[in-house]
């Protein structure tokens, strides 16, 4: 029988212990009201090849790797072909539809099958939890040739 570990417990277990020193860190964080995450590349409606470069944009916040608890920072997650947002009060799960960029990456290359696909960005904090007012991009659609 497999044992289940909740995503929140998983995030707590694998967040560097220094992030919780002196009980000053919290797993809940806030974002500035004017924070924005968006796609620089590709553009909404664009036709792309199966292997495509994706570049993330972020305004009024900084990028920090997972495990780094700094105010007004976070790291990117791409949601691919996701009709319903995951529970934004919990750590975002890592799946084939939710890709984590916990190293603080601001661009990547992904491979998609031919056809229409949607992409959306969600900024997560040091524990992969979206901020208490989530910073989420507009969903874009690309057509893969």
TrEMBL record:
Residues 54-145 form the DUF4399 domain. It comes from the Bacteria. Residues 1-21 form the signal peptide. This is Putative NAD(P)/FAD-binding protein YdhS. It comes from Thalassotalea piscium. The keyword Signal applies. Pfam families: DUF4399 (PF14347). Keywords: Signal.
């Amino acid at each position: 029988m497999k044992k289940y570990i909740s995503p929140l417990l998983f995030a707590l277990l694998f967040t560097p212990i220094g992030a919780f020193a002196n009980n000053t860190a919290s797993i809940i964080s806030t974002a500035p009201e004017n924070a924005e995450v968006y796609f620089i590349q590709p553009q909404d409606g664009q036709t792309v090849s199966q292997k495509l470069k994706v570049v993330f944009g972020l305004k009024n916040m900084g990028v920090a790797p997972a495990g780094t608890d700094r105010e007004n920072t976070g790291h990117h997650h791409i949601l691919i072909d996701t009709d319903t947002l995951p529970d934004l009060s919990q750590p975002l799960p890592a799946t084939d539809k939710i890709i984590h960029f916990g190293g603080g990456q601001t661009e990547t290359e992904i491979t998609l099958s031919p056809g229409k696909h949607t992409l959306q960005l969600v900024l997560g904090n040091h524990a992969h939890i979206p901020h208490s007012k989530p910073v989420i991009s507009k969903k874009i659609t690309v057509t893969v040739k």
